[in-house]
Amino acid sequence: MNNPKKILIIGGDSFIARYFIKNNASIYQIRAISRIATGFENELVLQDFFSLKSEEFNNVDVVINFAAIVHNPHNTNEKLYLRINFELPQFLSEKAKAHKINYFLQMSTVAVYGRTEIINQETSEAPVTLYGKSKLMADRSLLLMADKNFKPAIFRSAMVYGGGNAPGNMMRLIRMVDKGWPLPFNNAHNKRDFIHISTLTMLIDHAIKNEITGVCLLCDGIPVSIRELIKVIEKCLKKKIRLFSLPKIFISIIKAAKPGLFEKLFGSLQVSDTDIRNKFNIVPKDMLEQGITEMVASYKNQK
Q1: Rg of the chain on CA atoms, in Å
Q2: pLDDT digit string, tens, across residues 188-229
Q3: Separation in Å, CA 156 to CA 159, 214, 252, 291
Q4: How confident is the model at residue 295 (pLDDT cuts 50, 70, 90)?
Q5: Which of 72, 161, 279, 287 is most deeply buried (CB count within 10 A of its CB)?
Q6: Are residues 155 and 64 in contact, defined by beta-carbon separation less than 8 angstroms?
Q7: What is the DSSP string of the chain?
Q8: Please, what are the domains in the chain?
Q9: How far apart are CA 220 and CA 123, in angstroms?
Q10: pLDDT at 262
């Protein structure tokens, strides 16, 4: 490839960043800034990304920010969320713009929409967590910086899975099924969207090459219920568990008393695939069984 683009990645030790680097290091000139060493040869380990020197932005074509403090109900440090999720993207984008870097890709989150079951480009942003609120502040700040010489892209994806040990609730569900625990999802009819890590990183690559800008909603385009998900996990684990139904009154109590827990267990979250089809001109494909197989293999290797 002639004159490959030079990409500066912030948060190179994140799951998505590591997968992107692994599959694109031969295509781009990648420089990773990480808090934990990953073994990537062109990597700078920094505990404080605000100490990043200006020369790291020299001759860079693209900045991708993967760094974030994700939602944790036990972490109520508002200053930390603001520092990493809002002030850091501001710091990085200002550095990028000052160095005439015209493309900035920010990994955001669907948490900016708050408690809703359907997300599309018309859905109002109404975050309820410190994570969602701080990420939305960064997104809006970046979009206000846009001009003909600075093109920000904001990626808001469904839950990422596949590729091994993807973080999040998918791996927790795999562990529960493997333990053989009876689970209370027999009467669950929710629908949730996901996105395979390979699809997400392919879309990042496509966005860089085509300078796709603005807010992008991303998913596999095939929502599944938790019951369907468990069936796929059972198949990959070669195990069978018992599903039982919770009385409706118990579900109502959980929904009222612990709305966050209810959403994780029984809630729906469908993300529009219109952006993938229209902005990217790509037809999403079903990667669920392949992704669960990859995660089950990783889970077994770590047991």
Answers
A1: 20
A2: 889 999 999 999 999 999 999 999 999 999 999 999 999 999
A3: 10, 11, 30, 20
A4: very high
A5: 161
A6: no
A7: --SPPEEEEESTTSHHHHHHHHHHTTTSEEEEEESS----SSEEE-S-GGG--GGGGTT-SEEEE-------TT---HHHHIIIIIIHHHHHHHHHHHTT--EEEEE--GGGG-S-SEE-TTSPP---SHHHHHHHHHHHHHHHH-BTTBEEEEEEESEEE-SSS--SHHHHHHHHHHHT--BS-TT----B-EEEHHHHHHHHHHHHHHT--EEEEE--S--B-HHHHHHHHHHHHT----B-PPPHHHHHHHHHH-HHHHHHHH--BEE--HHHHHTS-------HHHHHHHHHHHHHHH-
A8: 6-157 (3.40.50.720)
A9: 19
A10: 82
Q: Is 289 in contact with 237 (CB distance < 8 Å)?
A: no
Which pair of structure tokens corresponds to residue 194?
């996901």
Q: Please tell me whether the overall predicted TM-score, pTM, comes out greater than 0.85 for this model.
A: yes
Check residue 225 and give its pLDDT. Answer: 93
Residues in the chain: 303
**Worst-scoring range by mean pLDDT, 250-259, 274-283, 284-293?**
250-259
Contact residues for 136 (Cβ-Cβ < 8 A; gap 6+): 108, 112, 125, 127
Cα-Cα-Cα-Cα torsion 34, 86, 219, 237, nearest 10 degrees, comes to 50
pLDDT in tens, 68-96: 998 777 788 899 999 999 999 999 999 99
